[in-house]
Amino acid sequence: MSSHTNSTTTSGHAKRPRGKLRDSHINLSHGSGGKAMRDLIEDVFVSAFDNPLLAALEDQAVFSLADLARHGDRLAFTTDTFVVDPLFFPGGDIGTLAVAGTVNDLAMSGAVPLFLSCGMVLEEGLSADVLRQVVASMKRTAQQAGVSIVTGDTKVVERGAADKLFINTAGVGVVPKGISISAQNARPGDAVIVNGHLGDHGTAILIARNELGVECQVPSDCQPLGTLVAAMLAACPEIHCLRDATRGGLATVLNEFAESSNVGIRIHESMLPIREEVKGACEILGLDPLYLANEGKLVAIVPGASAARVVAAMRQHPAGEHAAIIGEVTATPPGSVVLHTAFGGQRIVDMLVGEQLPRIC
Amino acid sequence: MKYVDEFRNPEQAQALSRQIRELAARIGRTRTRPLQIMEVCGGHTHSIFRYGITQFLPEEVEFVHGPGCPVCVLPMGRVDDCVALAEQPHVIFTTFGDAMRVPGSKKSLLKAKADGADVRMVYSPLDALKLAKDNPAREVIFFGLGFETTMPSTAMTVLQAKAEGINNFSLFCNHITIIPTLRAILDSPELSLDGFLGPGHVSMVIGTRPYEFIARDFRKPIVISGFEPLDVLHSVWMVLKQIDEGRAEVENQYGRIVPRDGNPEALNAVQEVFEVREFFEWRGLGSIDHSGVRVREAYAQFDAERKFHVPNLKIADPKSCQCGDVLKGLIKPQQCKVFRKECSPETPLGALMVSTEGACAAYYNYARIDISNLETHPEKTATGKTA
């Protein structure tokens, strides 16, 4: 997807040379509103995110409604805050998450994600290199997703008042005409689809925290899903439900669908794509992969007759290589999710009570 | 997954299920009530629900969910003691994660943490010892909890603390022991159990001999069982086989893990550090003689009960809870007056709702609706082919 900001008419040419961040660590002056802050913003953020809307350095990004309207007839707007610990993990970092997370929240409405904001809370003493690395990930992920980061804010707090780095992103996208996706739309006979391996992100974070002495690497699945959703909608514009299975995992999303649509959902353990490493980690730790977090996995409910076509389209996309049908929507029992175990039994899959793991995104 | 899938093979499950049905039908001809088998261990309760094992059993065979979930049987007063210890200045209170949510009379450890106490989750008592080494100015207390399964690692940690001369580490000992509790259940006049699935991990430490009184004195079969679904089905079959043949013996289905004499090194460490208490309070079951252990005098410096002031208040179980009746197999969880009403996993009143290994929580999570009534062949869909 091309950048959506090229056609906007905002003059973004700073007359003086861009500021330069010279300190190796963030200090309180970088949030003071003075020169140090301007140097930080220009050197780290503006140069990386590189778009005329941001480079104008106004208090807001202004974009044309006519440009938006070319993508559809409704605006989608969302926000998410990222506090993951550790900041870096196999397969991504807090920057990748901060862009992919908000892009995915937009995409789950069928919207074309367009513009993101970026609010940063930095802890005094944070290494400037860490910040640059995170910002580079945000830039890369934004390019991959075809979105522009057009406005931002930076605050620095005293040591101990935040843990290293927190990021908030908000996003705006446009929903194409005729697309109507809602958790209330599941109907008996629909098929349940996921786009690949479940539980990778939760496992990656758990292993990256290194509290367990487990010596295997599972990369996080952290990725933007906007273009995958576009491919799915091209194959089947009448997708009924779509949600990304982040905190609470697959089980939580399916329960939300079942409740909102007042239908039953049946899934089959033998059809669930789960990596052997993830299964192994869950066995050792007593976790259930159905509840593990993902950061690049969506759950779709589509009319049964379109299911094979949607999966075929998904498999053509890098984010949908391991897409699979995992179950079906039933009339009964309304509001419940039932798992058929590979062992041959059945059980209810309920909402998660409590917290499986804190600070995973 | 290798070494796991073999124990979850659906064809073998069906074969076992058929044999269990045949045996149960034969035994049932001479009986008027169902065969009740108690799975002692919470790990088994969890497996039974997670894999839907009851669906492989005939109506004549019922599981009674036993007391073997250490988090569940922890009395409220002990949780209050934990909170009191955790709220002392300079203390880092360390615990296994599943004990964080257990309600005390005022708050759980999770709440105490939110209120400012330094409560940390650890995966092993050795993590707590390391915290003590890393924080010499603080007092690190480890909340020792569990049956003989976790007792050896706690004992070893105390031995290591002594060897290394670490003075700011102590243990709040709530370890309990399964044999006196089984005896108390067997002594109960209302008892109607026909056999037992013995706990696998406890037995890995204590071996199979301590169960011999169950067969000898009470004439009940007991089979030490593994935790995979085929293990559990196989063990049920072994119990029924004993009943059918008029035998009452201790049999070991979990031979790949459980040696007859247990683990002597682990037992030595336990023996060295701990001694039996006169009695210990259990949630839902009341006080049971000799059912808990405490730190021996020789290790008093590592005993949080001696080192700190522990309020040690007795808090009665909520009156409306019928945990004791569920534990003895007299009622099913959903027959309890407060099940799904005042008592739920978010706000557990009774012990058995607290942990995922508790019978009531398992019923709540996995068996909310009668699964046997679910349609097994729904309307045909396009996905039917792949299913």
Please, could you describe this protein's structure?
The complex is a heterodimer of chains A (361) and B (387). The longest helix of chain A is centred in the middle third of the chain and has 18 residues, at 128-145. Chain A folds into two domains: 28-175, 60s Ribosomal Protein L30, Chain: A (2-Layer Sandwich), CATH 3.30.1330.10; 191-348, Phosphoribosyl-aminoimidazole Synthetase, Chain A, domain 2 (Alpha-Beta Complex). Mean pLDDT of chain A is 91; it is low at 1-14. Chain A is α+β, with helices and mostly antiparallel strands and 361 residues long. Helix content of chain A is 30%, strand content 22%. Chain B has 387 residues and is α/β, with parallel strands linked by helices. Chain B has a domain at 9-69 and 179-244: 3-Layer(aba) Sandwich (Rossmann fold), CATH 3.40.50. Chain B is built from 14 helices and 13 strands. Chain B has helices spanning 10-28, 42-50, 76-86, 109-114, 125-134, 151-164, 178-187, 200-206, 212-218, 229-244, 264-273, 304-307, 323-327, 359-366; strands at 35-41, 61-68, 91-95, 119-121, 139-146, 169-175, 195-198, 222-224, 250-252, 274-276, 279-282, 286-289, 293-295. The chains are: A alpha+beta (361), B alpha/beta (387). Chains A and B meet through helix 9, strand 11 and strand 13 of A and helix 1 and helix 14 of B.
Radius of gyration of chain A: 21 Å
Strand count, sense and barrel status of the largest sheet of chain A are: 7 strands, mixed
Percentage beta strand of chain B: 15-25%
Count of DSSP helices of chain A? 10
Assembly type: heterodimer
Number of beta-strand segments of chain A = 13
Q: Give, in spatial order, the strands making up the sheet with the most strands of chain B.
A: 2-1-7-8-9
Number of strands of chain B: 13
Overall average pLDDT of chain A: 91
The CATH homologous superfamily of the largest domain in chain A is named PurM-like C-terminal domain
Q: In whole angstroms, how far apart are the ends of chain A?
A: 26 Å
Q: What's the shape of chain B?
A: globular
Number of helices of chain B: 14
